[in-house]
Design goal:
Elements lengths: L2 E6 L6 H16 L4 E6 L7 H14 L7 E6 H4 L6 E4 L3 H15 L1
Parallel strand pairs: 1-2, 1-4, 2-3
Helix pairs in contact: 1-4
C-alpha cells in the first residue's frame, strides 16, 4: 500500500496548510489503495477529542471526491512509519509540488 504522510500542527493550521491538506486528500484519494497518514506535531498519542477536531478540519477542506483511507498518528508513532512521501502542511508550495510529482509517478 502506498502511504503519503502529511505533518500538521493543529494549533497553527493556516490557509496554506489547508491548501496542502486539500491537495493531499484529492491526490491520495485518486490513487488506488493509497493511505493518507496525518501526523500531528507536538502530540504523542491521538485522543478522541483530537481525532474529532481533525475530522472537522478534514471535512472543511475535503474536495467533493472520494476520500482516501486516512489514519491519524502522533509524532512518536510516526517516527518509524514507512512512507513514499512526507510533506508538512506548512510547506505550502513545496508540499503541493511534491504531492503533484508523487501523483504523476503513481498515475
Amino acid at each position: 500500500m502506498a502511504r503519503v504522510v502529511v505533518e500538521i500542527d493543529p494549533e497553527r493550521f493556516t490557509r496554506s496548510g489547508a491548501v496542502v491538506l486539500t491537495t493531499a486528500l484529492e491526490i491520495v484519494g485518486a490513487a488506488d489503495g493509497a493511505e493518507l497518514a496525518l501526523v500531528v506535531r507536538g502530540v504523542d498519542k491521538i485522543t478522541p477529542k483530537l481525532s474529532e477536531a481533525l475530522s472537522g478540519i478534514v471535512a472543511t477542506v475535503a474536495p467533493p471526491t472520494a476520500l482516501p483511507e486516512i489514519v491519524l498518528y502522533g509524532e512518536r508513532d510516526a517516527v518509524a512509519l514507512p512512507a513514499e512521501l512526507r510533506v508538512a502542511a506548512a510547506g505550502s508550495a513545496a508540499a503541493v509540488l511534491a504531492l503533484t510529482r508523487w501523483a504523476a509517478d503513481v498515475g
